[in-house]
Amino acid sequence: MRxxxxxxxxxxxxxxxxxxxxxxxGGIWGFPTxxxxxxxxxxxxxxxxxxxxxxxxxxxxxxxxxxxxxxxxDIFTDLAKVPxxxxxxxxxxxxxxxxxxxxxxxxxxxxxxxxxxxxGLNQNGFFLDKLIEQTNSNPQNFSQLGNISPWVxxxxxxxxxxxxxxxxxxxxxxxxxxNKIFIPGLFVMIVLMMIYVxxxxxxxxxxxxxxxxxxxxxxxxxxxTDAFGQAFFMLSTCTGAIIIFSSCAPVGKSNTNKGLIIxxxxxxxxxxxxxxxxxxxxxxxxxxxxxxxxxxxxxxxxIFQVFPQIFAIITQQTGLSFLSHMLAVFFFLxxxxxxxLR
Length: 342
Fold this sequence. Notes:
The protein contains 13 helices and no strands. By secondary structure, the protein is mainly alpha-helical. Helix 1 (about 10-40) runs antiparallel to helix 8 (about 220-235) and helix 1 (about 10-40) packs across helix 13 (about 320-340). It is globular and about 65 Å long.
């Protein structure tokens, strides 16, 4: 059998790659969406899920990949022979099914990037009404958005074509380099946007909404299922991605430290993003003279509505439309890469 060429990444590159896999959708898209749906009480089952389940599995997968220096299918084939191969290909099939909705989110990120070049960036509802052509005013998931948008379909086809090209050419070095650039850049930009948004009138109302605690919600099953799903989603566990990345990482380093850095880094980015989103919700509601519930409703398109409005606020406050568009381009380009290179 021909031996495959081994490609290594640095320990820092490994951490950045896994953080890129986690924060792209888990932290920036998923976490604010869940906080908007459940309020501050979501943090309790979420942290329980992280500590009890997601972190231990993350550490197991890092150590598996790092010890055996193989992908997840080969590792389980070696350890469990035929049953191992079956169950890990079954895991791969589940990941492939997940990619159906994941690809749509990548397509949305691409559309948001295109929107950053257009005057529509400053128009409330431009993303919903013009790009994805949403017809349901209160969608809770993808199936409730309404009719199929030709723009989303075109963007989705572009994403699939790019995916095919990258799979044919190989992208380990490209992923390593892109994540080292865009993850720190995205983190710095979110921090700056959060600081800026929280200085505006109405932002504190948004934070109060974010951290509103309603004890009875802990008695519902949905908050627990969403919390455990979000914990696994944010750390990219149970998909094979962690094992593949860790198989390329240096052997003999402290894998526990890597896992803790990844978990805390993901949590920090998620909380900063949520504070930015909810602060912006409060500002937008304050400017419109409405309550936050009247401005935005829970749903999968939340961040794609809010972040363009943050850049619109920057234009209103500074009068520098060019600056807001440049910031929007970098932000959505960063989101696109960290989501796409997952």
